[in-house]
Amino acid sequence: MRRVISTVFIIFLAVIGSLAQVPTPSPIPSPTAAELPTDVPPVAPNFQGDERPLPTFERVGVDVANQLPLTLEKAVEMALQNNNDIDASRNDVQIAEYNLRGFQGVYDPQISGEGYFESATTPTSSSIGGGTANGAVTQRRFFGSGGLTGLSPIGGGSYSALLTSSRLTTSSRWASARPPS
């Protein structure tokens, strides 16, 4: 029992000690407006400012003695010709036109073609296999295909036209034999 009371007392002291360490917030001072004078201070009756020379009207790179008359239209034209931002925007327009032309290339048709020739000689051990006098069957095959495919700019569809051709020749005896009907 004594142990329980001492444990409770130690916990109580720990809680009290931790509460004592919590800082209290300090008050924030509110700003006050400064009082400004309402009357304008009087100017001295015999006030005299310093004499300073006026700035010259000459500018660096400008010859006042050799002036050139310039109309408003000519000034605007010269400003537009020498403006780099306008020149850059002209280049942007040209780049956009090239990009558009490149993107329209997706509608270009794709033409394809393929062809091959194959020759195979197969030895046979009997005439039942269709072999000729030399004991072999020779088959020759030619294959060719071609086509046109692409995307249509109208309606968003696609088109395709394919042609295929194949020819087979053989030296087999039984190639021309037909079964009875």
Protein model, in words:
- The chain is an alpha+beta fold and 181 residues long.
- Among the domains are: 32 residues; 67 residues, no CATH class.
- The chain contains 3 helices and 3 strands.
- A 3-stranded antiparallel beta sheet has the order 1-2-3, with no helix packed on it.
- The longest helix has 20 residues.
What's this model, at a glance?
By secondary structure, the protein is an alpha+beta fold. The protein has helices at 2-20, 72-81, 84-103, and strands spanning 110-123, 136-151, 158-170.
Number of strands: 3
Distance between the termini: 117 Å
**What portion of the residues fall into strands of 2 or more residues?**
15-25%
Please bin the fraction of helical residues: 25-40%
SSE class: alpha+beta
Element-by-element helix/strand order? HHHEEE
Average of pLDDT: 81
The total of helices stands at: 3
What is the molecular shape?
flat
Looking at this protein, list some descriptive labels.
3 helices; 181 residues; three-stranded antiparallel β-sheet
Topology:
Blueprint: H1 2-20, H2 72-81, H3 84-103, E1 110-123, E2 136-151, E3 158-170
Antiparallel strand pairs: 1-2, 2-3
